Amino acid sequence: MQDYQALLLEIKGDKTEGLIFTDNKGKHLDSSLINKRWLDRTRKQTLKSGEEVEYFYPGVVSQLVRDGKISGYLAPYHCRHTYITITAHLNSHNTDALLHIASACGNSVDVILRHYLGRIESTELITG
Question: pTM surpassing 0.85?
Answer without folding.
Answer: no
